[in-house]
């Protein structure tokens, strides 16, 4: 399977494993890359030296291309970027910030840059900044999200109409059929997050993985738009947020409830009541915890079978 995404990243299949905080350490990234897709280390939950350790371990665990996802609003950003260059990482996905800030700096140092967006407006800004590809992420996605609540199958053709560079679809994609659907409406490849949370190699706590597997339709909700929109599994912490909203809270009130390290507490440490449990709507279609290699194999098999059913030849 060869197209603009496989050629850009030198991978076998046009699938990117999302660099999710507290889930995407070196084990997940290397397993993904060894399975023929692009693995990403999630730098958003790592201190700089922890990131360096994960990059070095990933390099020892795979000879295939991998990258690092960097949310640009996090602290220590200069130190993180310096480590990426020092460790000779050649692919960086940026998010949660202005792509103009780092794109030229990274590209001047030989790095392929991809930026994550949630709207046509920001896709155009990323293209203007000179990124090599764009991830357009729909409102179905887990974790932090766009405020406009544009769904993936609406967003992808809208973005495709305006950009020339390769386009990667994200949000609500966990199966080969969903991958095919997004490619039919304009994507060159897909980024998959939630399905890889429920993998053996994910660094998420086992209790959180099982909760993802047990989740049903309607068990997630987008909330905290006043801070940074985030899709969460409904739990005690989520219910506390909803109760606070009944009082017309200020942003300071919301920040006080959120506190610090809620995501780590939930996803990494397994506190299913008080933790922030970020996952996508597609969790309702995830029914088991599998090795990454099997997840990828199943997706590609389903993708190819669906193409044959529709008599497609790309």
Report on this model:
With 314 residues, this protein is of the alpha/beta class. A hairpin with a 6-residue loop joins strand 10 (220-223) and strand 11. The chain is 41% helix and 15% strand. It folds into two domains: 4-203 and 285-310, TIM Barrel; 206-282, no CATH class. It has helices at residues 4-9, 26-34, 48-61, 77-86, 103-107, 120-129, 152-160, 176-184, 194-197, 206-214, 236-245, 251-258, 262-268, 292-310, and strands at 15-17, 39-42, 66-71, 91-95, 112-117, 133-137, 143-144, 167-170, 189-192, 220-223, 230-233. The longest helix has 19 residues, at 292-310. The strands form two sheets. It has an eight-stranded parallel beta sheet. Strands 7-11-10 form a three-stranded antiparallel beta sheet, with no helix packed on it. The mean pLDDT is 95.
**Would you tell me the overall average pLDDT?**
95
Query: Which residue ranges are poorly predicted, with pLDDT under 50 across at least 5 consecutive positions?
Result: none
Under CATH at level 1, the class of the largest domain stands as Alpha Beta
Strand content: 5-15%
- H and E string: HEHEHEHEHEHEEHEHEHHEEHHHH
Which fold does the CATH topology of the largest domain refer to?
A: TIM Barrel
- SS content category: alpha/beta
Please tell me what the overall shape is. Answer: globular
Head-to-tail CA distance between termini: 8 Å
Largest sheet: 8 strands, parallel
State the helicity in percent bands: 40-55%
- CATH architecture grouping of the largest domain: Alpha-Beta Barrel
